Amino acid sequence: MRPYRVVCLGNVLVDVLVKPVDRLPPKGGLLPVERLEISVGGCASNTALALRRLGVTVSLWGKLGKDFFGDFALAHFKKAGLGTTHLPRQKGVSTSATVVAVDSRGQRSFFHSMAANDQIHWGDLPLKSLSRHRHLHVGGISFSPSWMENPWPGC
């Protein structure tokens, strides 16, 4: 196998898009919508998928939970041809997810769960292997409180 040219490290998640949402339902109420969709999202995974579509070999580094969303995301990434060796699944942790409420004008509002993205720790990552890659893309870690408390080792 040829080495990956790019490592995309950071937030990996599943988006649940709800369309259209022009108001919230009353407490305990129901609001019918036209459409619900599920897709992968996150800065690191979106960049990895875009680069892969351009023919670049990419390894995606992050963390997923051992749950339905993790199954969904991992299957999507493997089908796209991303390297997923460093995308471990952690038991007892949910895969990070965002509910995206899209109004009739296309404006988005977000409900986000940090979950597995907040469980990525420097000690989990094979940082010594980075020299074998041509580029490191870090995406979305500024959203993670644990990463902000402990920035890049040696900084």
Second-tier CATH architecture: 3-Layer(aba) Sandwich
Q: Walk across the major sheet and give the strand order.
A: 3-2-7-8
Question: Given the structure, what is the number of helices?
Answer: 3
Low-pLDDT runs of 5+ residues are none
Largest sheet: 4 strands, mixed
Strand-and-helix sequence, N→C? EEEHEEHEEEEH
Helix share bin: 10-25%
**What is the β-strand count?**
9
Number of domains: 1
* Terminal CA distance: 33 Å
CATH topology: UDP-N-acetylmuramoyl-L-alanine:D-glutamate ligase
Gyration radius, in Å: 17 Å
- What amount of the residues lies in strands? 25-35%
In the CATH hierarchy, what is the class? Alpha Beta
Decide which structural class fits the backbone: alpha/beta
Describe what this molecule looks like in 3D:
The chain is α/β, with parallel strands linked by helices. It has one domain (6-24, 32-141): 3-Layer(aba) Sandwich (UDP-N-acetylmuramoyl-L-alanine:D-glutamate ligase), CATH 3.40.1190. The chain is 19% helix and 28% strand. It has helices spanning 43-53, 68-80, 145-149; strands at 6-10, 13-19, 35-41, 58-61, 64-65, 89-90, 97-102, 108-113, 135-139. Strand 7 and strand 8 form a beta hairpin. It is elongated, with a radius of gyration of 17 Å. The model has no long low-confidence stretch (mean pLDDT 89).
